[in-house]
Specification:
alpha+beta; three-stranded antiparallel beta sheet; 1 helix
Length: 89
C-alpha cells in the first residue's frame, strides 16, 4: 500500500488558519503577560481586563466609561467621592 499526499487549496487553507491562530494566541499572551493595553480600570495583579473603555470629552475634559456586553452603555466616570472625573485645562 502506497501513501500519497497531494497539496490542494483546502490543505493550504487549514495550514494558514492554524498558523494564524497560533500567531494571534502568542501575541495576545504576550500583551496580557506584560500588561500591554491595560488601563487603570483593569486588574493588573491578576492580568484581568475590565472590558471597560475610558473616553475623554476633549471639550470639557470629563471622562466616561463604556461597557456592557454589546458596548452600548456609557456612564460618567466617578472618583471615590462620587464626583465626575474631569481633567483641568
Amino acid at each position: 500500500m502506497k501513501f500519497s499526499f497531494t497539496w490542494d487549496i483546502s490543505t493550504f487553507n487549514w495550514i494558514a488558519f492554524w498558523i494564524a491562530f497560533i500567531i494571534v494566541t502568542i501575541i495576545v499572551t504576550i500583551f496580557n503577560q506584560f500588561n500591554i493595553g491595560f488601563d487603570d480600570s483593569d486588574n493588573w495583579a491578576n492580568h484581568q481586563r475590565s472590558n471597560l473603555v475610558i473616553y475623554t470629552d476633549y471639550k470639557s475634559g470629563c471622562q466616561y466609561l463604556q461597557g456592557g456586553f454589546f458596548g452600548d452603555n456609557i456612564t460618567p466616570r466617578l472618583d471615590e467621592n462620587g464626583k465626575q472625573i474631569c481633567q483641568k485645562k
